[in-house]
Every structure is written in structure tokens, then in C-alpha cells.
């Protein structure tokens, strides 16, 4: 796919995807026909069809011959797709959704940290340490606190040696951009605790799986508690 064609297709996917997630199409306003969309976005049928194919793969659309294209129920959407998750978070910030995401993290990241303590190569450990150093630099205003925190968690998923965990990187990064801002705000600080992250790295470096697991669980449980408090507070107001 040529770069121009690809970028145009992705642009249509982005615009249509956001409209679908925001509820622009329903029984009273069905998903437009291919011809109408081509006119609306001033693109060729090949570009539009490729965009629809991509949205179908994300679980947002169903396109069948002689039945047309329709928007699927939200329960069918692929929440593990980073774009879908981002559209959902941008549509209407949901503490419930963020809570569910953190439950996923609690089930995966402590296990990933334990596996990293057993399997991480020297290169893997260097990447985790580099991310930790970036977090330390962020405390002095020398790096981005959000990106360095994300880099730390993503490096551990990769260091687990589990290909399924590793492929969760994009999904995790997307939601972490929202989650980290919220939890740091609730703690009344702008930066994550480098000391608590250091404990996770030290356990991985020392090859102590259960210590790495518990240290990561502590980090995430704190985030979960903050999200739960925020959710309960919002429901009581």
C-alpha cells in the first residue's frame, strides 16, 4: 500500500471510527452507503473499502453482500485494539472502563514481572533500567514523566519473554496515558514513585520472581485503589 494511499485510508478509519464510537449512527441514522461516504470524504471506492475492512476487523462494523454495512453493538468491539480503546476513552472518560483496564493489568503485569525476573536477558534488563533512569530524570525536569513511566511498564511486558504479553504493549500504552495522569492527580503529585518502580526492577535484576510479582502488584493495586476512590466519589456526587 503506497504511503499516500495508506495515510488517507488511516485518516478515514480514524474519522469514521470516532463517529461510530460516539454513537453518530443508529436506527434513526444508519451507517451511510459506500457512495455517500465516498462523496462525503472525497475518496475513491478502493480507499473507502479498505477503511471499512479495517473497521470491520476492529469489530465496529459488519459488511455483508446485499445486506450493506452496519454498526455492531458495543459488546462486539475489540477492546484490545489500541484505536478502539483510545476512541472509547476520548468519547466519554469512563472510570468504569479504566477500572476494568486496571483489572487486566493486575492479572498480567505482576505475572510479567515475575517472568522477567526468570527470563530477562541483559538487554531486556538494560531497557527496564533505562526507563527507570528516565523516570529519575523526569523528577529533575529532564524527561517526560508520562512517557518514561509508560516505557518502564512496556519494557517489563517485553522482558517477560511471553509473546502474548509483549503484544499487549500498544494496548497498555494507550490506556496508561489516561490511567497514569488520573492516578498521579489523585495522589496529588505529578510524578510516579520512582522508589516503588525501583523495587520492581531490583527484584527482576536479582532474579527473584515472587518479589518482582509482589512489587508490581503493590504498584498496580495502589492505582486501582485510587481509581476506585475516584469512581465512588463521582457516583456519590
Topology, element by element:
Layout lengths: L2 H19 L12 H8 L3 H13 L3 E4 L3 E4 L10 H10 L3 H25 L2 H18 L5 H15 L3 H4 L2 H19 L6 H12 L3 H28 L1
Antiparallel strand pairs: 1-2
Q: What does this entry look like structurally?
A:
This protein has 237 residues and is mostly helical. The chain has 2 domains: 3-76, Orthogonal Bundle (Arc Repressor Mutant, subunit A), CATH 1.10.10.10; 93-236, Four Helix Bundle (Hemerythrin (Met), subunit A) (Up-down Bundle). It contains 11 helices and 2 strands, in the order αααββαααααααα. Strands 1-2 form a two-stranded antiparallel ribbon. The protein is elongated and about 60 Å long. The chain starts with a helix and ends with a helix.
Keywords, please?
237 residues; mainly alpha; Arc Repressor Mutant, subunit A; Four Helix Bundle (Hemerythrin (Met), subunit A)
The arrangement of helices and strands along the chain is HHHEEHHHHHHHH
Oligomer: single chain
Evaluate the radius of gyration. Answer: 21 Å
Class computed from helices, strands and strand pairing? mainly alpha
Instruction: Please identify, by name, the CATH architecture of the largest domain.
Output: Up-down Bundle
What's the main sheet like? Answer: 2 strands, antiparallel
Average pLDDT figure: 90
Amino acid at each position: 500500500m503506497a504511503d499516500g494511499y495508506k495515510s488517507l485510508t488511516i485518516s478515514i478509519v480514524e474519522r469514521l471510527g470516532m463517529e461510530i464510537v460516539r454513537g453518530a449512527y443508529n436506527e434513526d441514522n444508519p451507517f451511510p452507503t459506500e457512495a455517500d461516504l465516498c462523496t462525503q470524504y472525497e475518496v475513491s471506492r478502493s480507499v473507502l473499502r479498505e477503511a471499512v475492512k479495517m473497521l470491520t476487523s476492529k469489530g465496529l462494523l459488519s459488511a455483508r453482500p446485499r445486506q450493506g454495512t452496519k454498526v455492531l453493538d458495543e459488546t462486539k468491539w475489540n477492546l484490545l485494539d489500541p484505536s478502539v480503546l483510545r476512541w472509547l476513552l476520548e468519547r466519554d472518560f469512563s472510570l468504569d472502563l479504566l477500572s476494568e483496564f486496571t483489572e487486566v493489568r493486575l492479572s498480567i503485569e505482576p505475572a510479567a514481572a515475575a517472568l522477567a525476573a526468570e527470563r530477562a536477558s541483559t538487554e531486556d534488563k538494560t531497557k527496564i533500567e533505562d526507563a527507570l533512569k528516565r523516570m529519575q530524570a523526569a523528577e529533575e525536569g529532564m524527561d517526560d514523566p508520562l512517557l518514561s513511566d509508560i516505557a518502564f511498564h512496556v519494557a517489563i511486558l517485553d522482558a517477560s519473554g511471553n509473546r502474548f504479553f509483549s503484544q499487549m504493549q500498544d494496548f497498555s500504552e494507550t490506556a496508561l496515558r489516561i490511567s497514569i495522569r488520573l492516578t498521579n492527580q489523585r495522589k496529588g503529585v505529578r510524578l510516579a514513585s520512582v522508589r516503588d518502580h525501583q523495587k520492581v526492577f531490583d527484584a527482576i535484576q536479582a532474579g527473584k520472581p515472587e518479589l518482582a510479582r509482589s512489587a508490581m502488584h503493590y504498584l498496580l493495586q495502589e492505582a486501582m485503589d485510587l481509581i476506585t476512590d475516584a469512581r465512588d466519589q463521582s457516583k456519590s456526587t
